[in-house]
Design brief:
The protein has 212 residues and is α+β, with helices and mostly antiparallel strands. The chain folds into 2 domains: 50 residues, no CATH class; 141 residues, Sandwich (Immunoglobulin-like). The strands form 2 sheets. It has a 5-stranded antiparallel β-sheet with strand order 1-2-3-4-7. A 4-stranded antiparallel β-sheet has the order 6-5-8-9, with no helix packed on it.
């Protein structure tokens, strides 16, 4: 009796094998091969776990508490006040992809930036209908964490002439939709200085080294 490889069963579970291959593998399972049934069961659990992780969103209140704790922990003060460059603290596309979930959707990206005086939390998501990106985020003024960054003018650009202006709400949150050109640029005002510009080329393309 022929047994299929682990890689073939991963493609079977993710439904990326050819039609003929899928049929042959299904027939093999029906024949009662316990070894292959156990392999399929394992990778089905992996795929389900990956799907749950991709859609998980922590409670907003917990996120705000964590951001406030970070801002007041003294980490922000360790950087030179004269440093004005944007610093990437986290990018979900730089995290290794979960083994066995090679065909998982890459339609969402989360990032955290430090750009004096702000800490900027950004999420980019591809809209299922049309060719647009949904950009949501939150600003935290790390130099004055007790002051909410409300009514800050955030500008989104797709670097192809499409520009959207948004004001943050009472919690420093913003949300906007823009035509997807592949690239994205976000700019924030800074008192007495040039605006902060965060450039995201290939906004929803996984970066080299970010896959397993």
């Amino acid at each position: 009796m022929k047994h299929f490889t682990t890689e073939e069963w991963i493609d079977f579970v993710n439904q990326v094998a050819s039609t003929n291959q899928q049929a042959a593998m299904q027939k093999h399972l029906v024949s009662g091969c316990k070894k292959c049934q156990e392999t399929v069961s394992l990778w089905q659990k992996v795929r389900e776990t990956a799907a749950v992780e991709a859609t998980y969103q922590p409670p907003l209140e917990s996120v705000r508490i964590a951001k406030a704790a970070f801002a007041t922990s003294g980490l922000a003060g360790k950087q030179s006040k004269s440093k004005s460059l944007t610093e990437l603290l986290f990018d979900s596309f730089l995290q290794p992809a979960l083994a066995g979930a090679r065909s998982s959707s890459m339609g969402m990206r989360q990032m955290l930036y430090r750009a004096d005086p702000y800490q900027v939390d950004i999420q980019i998501e591809a809209k299922p209908e049309g060719d647009h990106l949904l950009v949501t985020g939150q600003l935290l003024n790390v130099s004055r964490p007790e002051v909410v960054s409300g009514e800050v003018r955030v500008t989104l650009s797709n670097r192809r002439g499409n520009v959207v202006h948004i004001l943050t709400n009472q919690f420093g949150e913003f949300r906007g939709e823009i035509e997807n050109s592949g690239d994205l640029e976000l700019s924030l005002p800074r008192a007495g200085e040039e605006p902060i510009v965060i450039s995201l080329r290939n906004a929803l393309d996984r970066l080299p080294g970010g896959t397993s």
